[in-house]
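Continuing the series of single-chain predictions for the mutant panel. This is the parent chain; the variants come on the following pages.
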Amino acid sequence: MTGPMKGTGPLALARGRFARHRLAVASALALVLLSALAVAAPMVEAALGVDGEAVDLFNRFAAPSAAHPLGTDELGRDFLVRLLRGGRVSLLVGLTAALAAAVMGTVVGLTAGYFGGRLDALLMRFTDAVISLPFLPLLIVLAAVDLEKVGLPADLVASENISLYRIVAIVALVGWTTVARLVRASALSLREREFVLAAHAQGAGALRVMGIHILPNLVSPIIVATTLSVGNVILLESVLSFLGLGIQPPIPSWGNLLTNAQELIWTAPSLAFYPGILIFVTVIAFNFLGDGLQDALDPKAMEG
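Parent structure:
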């Protein structure tokens, strides 16, 4: 008896479908390149022999050169290093917040879909209430809250990274609804399948059935929704940072680099162009990547 033909497994078929989505492949390569450059920021800094945080007022707005490939900013700091450092922060915030929101959405959606009934109705009405809130104004209000007045430790509030933690927490708290609805819809269908009923017949508890039998079948929609949300999170972080409510200096992000450059748009337009184009490319790339993963992980999408 011969085994399955090589290259016909689910993963191989998914890879084949993804490879046919040229925009998704190009986007994945672009994101890998951007991520690699962001991770390599300290090495680039060392190779150039510069300090990305060192202020040199005698070298403000320097033109691109071998020492400063993208020139310097309004404080004489190497702009390439600042961009790469900002990329680390923006990508980290996007990925972390999207993953946190996906976890929250998965818990809510799986619980609602599996148990159904009044619990399902309660959780979905709460989800609808969160969706109905005006998103950007809500983020602005939450970002402006004085953290000392909500009982957080003074040491944490004074931390240099508190603005980063705040953005991740805010986005996770309000960005889980899409994943919750997708997971709930799939869980409602899966809980009636034969393998779930068989697990119940063998005495498996609710947590085991949800974690072992239902959750693995929800991985595809969760991955797609999370990938699509990363670009939105980066865009929201950029908007909040541009408004002065996001990542705060001295930590660089693409959003606050744009904020610093808004008054210099005529003096040094490149200071606004580079972070702006990187935000644009990253958001578009994540959207195309999500589309490609959706096609690859759902064969019906390619047939339609």
